[in-house]
Amino acid sequence: MNYQCTRNSAEHVSAAQAIAQGISEDGGLFVPESLPQYDSSVLEGMKDGTYLDRAERILGDFLTDFTPEEIRECVKKAYGGEKFSGGHPAPLVELPNCPAPVHLLELWHGPTCAFKDMALQLLPHLLTKSLQKIHSDKTAVILVATSGDTGKAALEGFRDVAGTKIMVFYPQNGVSAMQKTQMTTQEGENVAVCAIEGNFDDAQTGVKRIFTDPAMKETLAENGMMFSSANSINWGRLLPQIVYYFSAYSDLLKAGKVQLGQEINIVVPTGNFGNILAAYYAKKMGLPVHKLICASNANNVLTEFLRTGVYDRNRQFFTTISPSMDILVSSNLERLLYDLTGRDSERVAGWMQQLSETGRYEVEPEILKQLQEIFYAGFCDDAQTCGAIHEIYNMSHYVCDTHTAVAIQVYRHYLAETQDTKTPTVVASTANPYKFATSVLLSVDQTKASGDDLANVRALEALTGAPIPQPIAALEGKPVRFTQCCTPDGMSDMVLSGLGIAKE
Ligand SMILES: *Cc1c(COP(=O)(O)O)cnc(C)c1O
C-alpha cells in the first residue's frame, strides 16, 4: 500500500518513506491510498486475540512494505514488555450508575501516563525500520511541538534509540506543572527540551516551518542528519491509534456488551484531531460506529467548524485546565477534508493556504452535510470540566482527568440533545488523573488542595485511594536538566545549537 499527500495527490510514497519523512515537502500530510475493509468476520476473528494480535493484523494491512516478522517485533517491543502496567495496554472500564452504557477506554497505562504512549512507544521502532528500508544512514532528528503530553511521551519513546536525536518545544506558560517537570527532568543522551515564548500553535507553526525550510534541510544533510516528526502529522503516530478502537470493540464483543455489527458511539477529547481521526478511519474500515463525538474545551474552533463549516482561528486563545487540547489549528483536520472531498488535493491545498493567510476557510454545504452526519461536536469550559470530575467521582467513584472529563461532559450534552441512551458508548480516557492532580483534586474537594503539585498527588491519593502511577511517584526529587527558553523566531538557532551545528 502506498501513501499520498493531501496537497498533491500525484505524490506517491511507500509507508517507510511516509514514516521516515513525517510530512511532505509541500507541507501536506501523508495518507494511505485506500483503507483496508474489515467485515464482521474480521471483527469476530479479532475478538479472541490479544492486543498484540490485533495490532499486528491492522499494522500489517497498512505497512505492506514491512514483513510480518518486522511488524511483530515492533509491536512486541512497544506493547509486549513491562512498559504498560496491568497487562492490557488499552483496557475498558464500565462507568457504573450512568443513564446510558458508558465504557472508558483507558489509554494511559504507558510510561508517561497519557494516551500518546500508545503511539509513541511504537513509533521509534517503526521509524528505525523505515530508515533502514529507505537506505538512509542519516541520524533522524525528531522535532516535536507539544501542548504537554506528546513531548514527554516522545522523549520517553526515543530516549537512547540509536540513530535518533529528539528536541521538544513546549509553550512556556501553556503546560501543567507536572507536564513541565516530566519533560525538564527527562533522562537520555539524545534528548533536548526547550520552552518557547508563545502558545502551542506558535510551537507547531515553528516546527513545521523548520521542517519545510530548504536551507535547514541542506544544513542537516551536510551533517549526516535528516528531520523527522513524532507529532500526529506523522502517519506512524496515527496508525497505532486505529488499533485501540478495534480492540475496544473486540473487548465489548467478548464481554457480551455489544452484538456483532451493533453500533457504538465514540467520544474523543480533541486537540490536534489525531485521536478522533483514527476513530474516523476505523469507522471507514468497517467498525460499526453511530456517532463520533468530538469534545473540545473553551478553545472551541472544532465545535464551530463541525457545526457550521467555518474554520476560523481568529479568536481568543484560552489557557485551560485541559492544556493538551489548547489548540486553534488542528493539523489532522486536513486529512479528514482530503477524504471527504474524494481526495481533492487542490481544494485542500486551497483551504490550507487560506488558513495560513487569513486564519479562516469555509467548506461547501455538501461537505458540511457529511461532517454533520458523521460527527457530533460540543465543548465545555473549565467550570463544567471541574463539575464533571466532581459528579463522576460522586456517582461512580471513578477519578478522571480533566481531558477525559471534557469528553464525558460533552457526551452528556449529546445525551440531553439526542436522548440516545441505547447506543453503547466508548469514551477515550486520555490521561491518568494524577497527571493533572491539582485540577482534579480541586474538583473533587477543593479544601484539600495546596500550591504544590506533588503534594496534591499525595492528597488525591489519600482522598480517593486511586493508585499513583509509578512514573509520577518517581518524579519527586528528580534533577531538572533543561531550562532553556527561546522565541518562536529563535527555534531554528536552538535546533542547530542543540545538534552541535555551528551557524554559517
Ligand atoms: C494530546 C491529548 C489530547 C488531544 O488529542 P489529539 O489527538 O491532539 O486530538 C487529549 N487529551 C490528552 C490527555 C492529550 O494528551
UniProtKB/TrEMBL annotation:
Key word tRNA processing present: no
Protein name: Threonine synthase
Cofactor(s) the record lists: pyridoxal 5'-phosphate
Residue ranges of every copy of the Tryptophan synthase beta chain-like PALP domain listed in the record: 87-365
Alphabetical keyword list: Lyase, Pyridoxal phosphate
Source organism, top-level taxon: Bacteria
Enzyme Commission (EC) number: 4.2.3.1
Domain Threonine synthase N-terminal: 2-79
Family: Belongs to the threonine synthase family.
GO MF assignments: threonine synthase activity
